[in-house]
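Exercise 7 asks you to align residues with tokens for two separate proteins.
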Amino acid sequence: DDESDNVFASGLVIRDLPVRLSNWRSEKTLQQYLIDHNVVAIAEIDTRKLTRILRDKGAQRGVIVAGDNIDLVLAKAAINEFSGLKGMDLAKEVTVAKAYEWTEDIWSLTTGHTEASNLSKHVVAYDFGIKRNILRLLVNRGCRVTVVPATTTAEQVLAMNPDGVFLSNGPGDPEPCTYAIAAIKTILEQKIPTFGICLGHQLLALASGAKTQKMKFGHHGANHPVQEKATGRVMISSQNHGFSVDDSSLPDNIKATYHSLFDGSLQGIERTDCPAIGFQGHPEASPGPHDVESLFDQFIEMMDAHQV
């Protein structure tokens, strides 16, 4: 299923291009989907070798060129023009243009996607590059969701009288998103239950006084083990990020809740002076893994406690 209105990836690199549709819900081939969205792609690449290069040398600059008149000089120039993700505010590039309401529930084998009713809670979700399954999971737990642009002020959000505020995933460096950091600070001061994922988790940390850092090659994939600090429980998570919260920079009012078992990097935080949590991975991952989906239940519990 589409997770956004558009494809924001500039290109796709894969080993094999599937030529046969194998899912009964498929509507078109991957190749046709990429053509329809004007996304350049390349296949028959040894992606395992490419992965080893990235692991040894860190994230690399690159370009995909296609067609009959390939100009290596222009290709190299395009590579040299890219300075990297550090300092890039991409949330503004991918965010929604105006606010909208979301009431669509998770997919069901018997009914597909349906519109939910009798939603008792109101969540305002900041769109820094939000995935639709996040919205579906919130609706499935009884929340009416208002999605707002990344630059929406705290005053505008508070005027909507939300029961909770969600800070979405998204691309790029969190530090340049000063407009979001300022808004989150104000929301936290009002003790509104807040939940951040991926970029939203990093912005929550910055708004709380912590620091973020660029990773050598980041975390990408659907099989990342994370450990819950309080219980020692290990869960498998989906991750896709190139920045992380600096564990050593956490102020006294933030406690670490999860760590990566791959490299020990910080994966989760919780404010001790207000109802706010963050998680670096993707608990909403569709089709999975679903080990950390319970964080949405924790968010609901935070809102229930706040209402009381």
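Second protein for Exercise 7:
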Amino acid sequence: MLHGHHAQEGIMKKNSLTKLLALTLCAVLALSLFAGCAAKTEETAPADSETTEAAATETTEAATEEAAAEETTEQPAAEEATGLLAEIKAKGKLVVGTEAQYAPYEFKDLDANFAGCDIWLAQQIADSLGVELEVVDMAFDGIIPAVKSGQVDIGIAAFTKTPERAEEIDFSNLYETSAQLLIVKTGDADKYSTKEALAGQKVGAQKGTIQSQLILSALPDSELFELEKYPALALETQNGNIVGFVVDQAVGEALVATSDGKLEVSNFQFTAEEASFGKAAVIAKGNEDFVAAVNEVIDKVVADGSYQAAYDEAVELAASLGL
């Protein structure tokens, strides 16, 4: 009996060990499965995160590109060049206002072609701009209004640069300086050589010129007498209706040379402070780029001596024509 009991007890212990082993294996298996699932979950989560981040990045980049495209579309195109210089180039010609009765600066030859050193200068400016030259002949005192209104692009007519004119017009750089002469009837050179001698006398000048202003400022006791043209002033002087007229040196010398001995240069002299005049072209205000283009030509022809050569040739031509 004892033996059987021990045998039965042994069998029960054996069964218990078997169950314990089975439970242990199940637990291990369960833990393994749980760990596997956990690992799988951890591996899956970053993949989902990366996908989300990639999608977000693509969306941001797309939005940025779209915004950049909109910004580019909204930016205005660069403005085209405007102003007088652009207009001159667009129409293909430079329109110059002058008075062609002021040799050697501007006059007409025997074929009625415009000539003179100012016309030569105008041609140099037109050539530099790559356009044709058109010259409009008009009364001297109408040139600045024509420039201001746009009737002509530029005025080149031996204009003297003055502060008064600069208030309504822009000047180019100076291209020539000239002394001022008093032209009188032959035999009166010494008679009218002082301001005292000219006091109370009629002294002539072309209307609207710096010479008129010079008479008013330097000869306040004289009476200003104005006419439109210098040949008419020369005739008035020869006839004794005025004692003389004030004019640029080159023009005065030409008028004396063609007067058949009836005119001469007075021994009267203006001081440098009274009459130190320089010649410049006139351009409507607000056209700085055009002024710069004109100045570039003027500076060049003055520096290389070509303007002086053109001036000398114009003096000779005017003399040969009796102007």
